[in-house]
Specification:
Elements: H1 2-20, H2 29-40, H3 47-60, H4 65-71, E1 75-77, E2 84-86, E3 91-95, E4 98-101, E5 130-135, E6 138-143, E7 155-159, E8 162-170, E9 184-188, E10 199-201, E11 213-223, E12 226-232, E13 243-250, E14 257-260, E15 265-270, E16 277-289, E17 295-307, E18 314-316, E19 321-325, E20 333-334, E21 337-339, E22 346-353, E23 359-361, E24 366-369, E25 399-411, E26 417-428
Parallel strand pairs: 5-17, 19-26
Antiparallel strand pairs: 1-2, 3-4, 6-15, 7-16, 8-9, 8-13, 9-12, 10-11, 10-13, 11-12, 14-15, 16-17, 18-21, 20-24, 22-25, 23-24, 25-26
């Protein structure tokens, strides 16, 4: 039996190769079909032979697909264990890094297994979720981007009403739950615990659902992953069993801003607000369309902080006279200022004047480097007297020079800024 099987394997492999290379001596359709039928009637006995069979079929590629579809789909193979169903798949490359199988999409209520059989690929967001800190009483704009792959289909954008936090599946056997006009919704296999105040919108999950936002006004625990939610208002549409849904918080743009569905740009003038910081979170869905009527979407939740009026008063901590510094010595000098805004980072920049040669001002206020007494072509110095050969008063005469410069201190968000002129003396005996 094994010898016969081996011969059939060899014959089929040769047939697959001959068909692919258009060889003159390739087996005919009927001959290949007969070999497939004969092979399918034999017990495989172990997984190794089954793998060899699957490898053989892949060698045939598209040339043998009509035979496989007519003789082997589904393909029942006898074994010591109960029969095994073998499905044959075609793999299509639809992008640089995507593959698609021709299987039927399967969604399990427990979320364990899902097969994507569509041609269209979900958009990939490239904009980070955290949009940073912005000032109120200003025109603001956020450009939300996805990876541009026009060959995969156009993308449209929509602003959601709910920021998804908890995933779950609708499930019930009762007529009082998950039905139109009822206010009870039972969900299971949740990724978190719903709380009063959560919100739900069925538009993206239930066919023909509108954009109604439902508020969770009560939560009954059935188990650690199953809950009965009391909603307000009552359901405007029924929710079928094993329908995937998401709960969360209200998706809200900063006051005064609008959303452009064509470009995914958020823009507008944020009005004046008092000396407080407000945080906003909102969710945008990017939906890719295909010429086959299929769609695929991807959600991303964005956050932004808007700062209101700030009463920032800055004062200098460092006196204007910085003292003196000797030549060729490493500087340990620094300037500092303080702000009434807590935890505010302060930056220091040189507005005018010059520091002694060799010294520079860092953004943190430190004056770093060492004073060059004698300069060169690339590094200026304080002075040069006859190449150092001149002696004054037997070395008792003192040489010095004063430097005046202005430094500005400002907080990192430019709430306020102050300036001060400082003096620094270089002295050499």
């Amino acid at each position: 039996m094994l010898l016969k099987k081996s011969k059939i394997f060899s014959a089929l492999a040769k047939s697959a190769y001959d068909i692919k290379t258009n060889a003159d001596n390739a087996l005919s359709y009927s001959e290949t079909k007969l070999l497939l039928s004969e092979l399918s009637s034999m017990p495989f006995g172990n997984c190794k032979l089954l793998n060899q069979f699957n490898t053989l079929l892949s060698l045939a590629d598209m040339a043998l697909m009509p035979m496989l579809s007519s003789t082997c789909t589904p393909f029942k193979i006898r074994n010591d264990l109960p029969g095994v169903i073998v499905s044959f798949f075609k793999i299509f490359v639809v992008g640089d890094d995507y593959f698609r199988a021709d299987t039927v999409a399967i969604g399990a209520g427990d979320g364990v297994f899902t097969v994507d059989s569509t041609y269209v690929r979900a958009p990939i967001w490239t904009t980070a979720s955290n949009l940073g800190v912005k000032r109120a009483n200003n025109y603001l704009t956020f450009k939300l981007d996805t990876y541009k792959a026009l060959e995969l289909g156009p993308i449209i954008y929509s602003l959601d009403t709910v920021n998804p936090i908890i995933d779950g599946y609708a499930y019930t056997t009762l007529a009082t739950e998950n039905k139109i006009t009822k206010n009870l919704l039972r969900i299971k296999n949740t990724t978190g615990t719903p709380v009063v105040g959560n919100k739900l919108c069925l538009k993206d999950y239930v066919t023909d659902a509108d954009a109604t936002t439902y508020n969770v006004i009560n939560v009954t625990n059935v188990s650690s992953t199953e809950f009965i939610l009391t909603l307000s208002p009552p359901l405007a549409i029924g929710v079928a069993n094993n329908k995937f849904i998401q709960l969360g918080t209200a998706s809200t743009l900063p006051l005064g801003m609008q959303f452009d569905q064509g470009t995914a740009e958020v823009f507008g003038v944020v009005p004046y607000q008092p000396a407080i910081t407000k945080s906003y979170t909102f969710t945008v869905t990017a939906t890719r369309l295909s010429d086959r009527g299929e769609i695929a979407n991807s959600k991303r939740t964005f956050s932004v902080q808007v700062l209101g009026e700030i009463d920032s008063v800055m004062t200098w901590n460092t006196p204007s006279n910085l003292g003196s510094i000797g030549a060729n010595l490493v500087s340990t000098l620094a300037v500092s200022a303080s702000s009434t805004v807590s935890n505010s980072a302060i930056l220091y920049v040189l507005e005018s004047g010059t520091l002694p040669p060799g010294l520079t001002l860092s953004l943190d206020g430190e004056i770093v480097g060492k004073v060059n007494q004698f300069g060169g072509e690339d590094a200026p110095g304080i002075l040069t007297l006859d190449g150092g050969g001149l002696l004054l008063d037997d070395g008792t005469t003192t040489l010095d020079k004063d430097y005046a410069f202005t430094i500005q201190a400002r907080d990192i968000l430019s709430y306020s800024a102050i300036s001060r002129e400082f003096t620094l003396k270089w002295r050499r005996s």
